[in-house]
Design a protein that fits this description.
Rossmann fold, 2 domains, 38% helix, oxidoreductase activity, acting on the CH-OH group of donors, NAD or NADP as acceptor, oxidoreductase, NAD(P)-bd_dom_sf, NAD, Glycerate dehydrogenase
Amino acid sequence: MKIVVIDDVLMNESQIDQLKSLGDLNIYSGTPKNQEETLNRGKDAHIIVSGWTHFSSSTLDRLPNLKMISLWATGYDYVDIGEANKRGVTVTNVPGYAKNAVAELAISLMLSVMRKVPQADRNVKESKAYNWGLFQGMEMSNKTIGIIGTGAIGCRVAEIANGFNMKIIAYDPSPKDEIVRKCNVKYTSCDEIFRESDIVTVHMPLLPSTHNFITEKDFAKMKKNAIFINTARAEIVNQNDLYETLKSRNVFGAGLDEINLSIESGEDLLKLDNVVVTPHMGFNTIEATEIKTNICIDNVRNYLSGGPSNEVRID
């Protein structure tokens, strides 16, 4: 059984040894730059472990020996799942491993934007002076937070928000009674989330139905001093609309863990002083990545044992 780790998957020596025990292992670093590089790395592979590489229908067509893709990720938008299912290629993911990591980054982005932490840090280092009067911010305590998506991460954000004595409202197409009881959450419409929240934070998966889910019409409803946080996938938000909203100062600011740098609005967002951007690092803690890799390897092991775990299918 040939196993290929096709891109940057964080593994310690013990985890590498575990994969070696399951088959003939090749490990690559860096994301393939194009389809041909993907095919060169993945040729003859029966199992591919992947964190960042795209597998389109045409790519899958040219990997005839492929039986499984073990994604080192929760999101599975990098793979054409329908086509993989048709070809009998098992696709697995790693759900729920980073709820603490991503939720804590979301909270840190809220604090960073509201207290202007990056700007203040930069000013002290450049001026070598304490110009505190330039950086009056806002407190999170007693504010209203609107959570869009109450999966594992959204629920964890709600738990933390209780510690700030916040009013918590949420939108999810599948409301959960448990979070209402446990975290004092009130479910409401997406419209009310944008109208009533001091902080809007996004925690929904990227699906065809959530692509461009948030647009100018939503931003137009937000309070002038509200902030927008997205630690989910960038494509859930219309980035051009978000840029125009922030440029016009129609909201206080934004904290974003992923933006699309391949389009003009991505570079434009980096020029704004009311935006904090991090490099898609929400998952990247010592604790979360160890769990993530262990589950990813377990998915391979369970597949080989005949009982796939965390399988992704589109029925």
